[in-house]
Design goal:
Porin; mainly beta
Length: 379
Amino acid sequence: MKKLVAGMAALCASAASFAQSTASVPEAQPSTVKIYGVADIALAEYRTSGQSRLAMHPGGAGSRLGFLIGENLGQGWALNARLEAGINLDTGTSSSTNGVPNRVFGRQAYVELANRDFGALRLGRQEGPIYTFFPTYDPMLLPAMDAWGVVTTLGSPAPGVASGNGTSTGFMINPTGRTENTIGYISPRLAGVQGKLSYSLAEGAATQPSLVEANIDYVAGPLQVGALYVRAGSTPGSATVRPTDSNSEFAIGAKYQAGPVQPYLTYIRRKSTDPTRAAGGGVLNGNAETVKLIGVVIPVSARGAVRMTYGRYASGTANADASNYGAAYTYDVNPRLMLMAAVTHLSQDSAARYPVFQSPRPNPGKSVNAVTTGLTWRF
């Protein structure tokens, strides 16, 4: 953490020095604009509690249209901006992120000042350390493939949300979430080590916590290991929503991408299931929550791979734990087009009612099964 903060300080100091020496800077080059996108669609059938549902929705990455703008300022400096809009390819409408509709650029909208030696500073709505950690250490390519039912996507997609009734809302480290009003820093990779740090402002909101995210990972050939820390600040509450204490989570991940079997491991621990302040003191549910996730990728051809995972979610609430099994086959037609087919099974305790993505809501204790197939085309 100290190294990340030092890196941010060095970047800011260097930026100030750069601004003061504009007389020696060559004329800035014209800005460039890159238009990119993803067309992502899947067809899934869900079965639970005697119900079935056939649904069309994202399956591999989430469809989007983005604009990446860049300008070379000279002396190793660059100014960049990203505007990225999510699209529901099945209906042609804008996709909702964190449950908030009508965002024009709901995926990302930020400006970035970058230096080749000191890293990059970002301001705006962005994919922070939470978002980038999980697809790195999950064989099922999260966060996009939550239709496959991996247990880290259960509950609320909004980081830091408390239920207010003592039960779990799912993890703060939900891999599908992005953050807004965020100051982010990404360090250069040195000797295999890279760090990311972000702070999301609450801006005086009575029910929205500030959020600190920090990630560090290390790459050595086929081995990659990482750690993630997240802390949601306390909130004063409002007339209808009770105040909360601060809450935190920690995650570690590892993967080894060599050989006929490539293992993946992830462990997550949340400090409090429900940090809502109790009338008599303390919080409504101070039990910890955990997820243990293991998986493998087995290459079966130059372009095809079998992916398997097992996850166990300990919810911190009585009789509300869940387990997930998933298996998939992915085939890369080329570097831009991926085809996939997957099956998943979610079982849960007698008091749990977790759905799998867009499945019907199950009766308490009932399992959910899903079969998914689709494609992801990047352009």
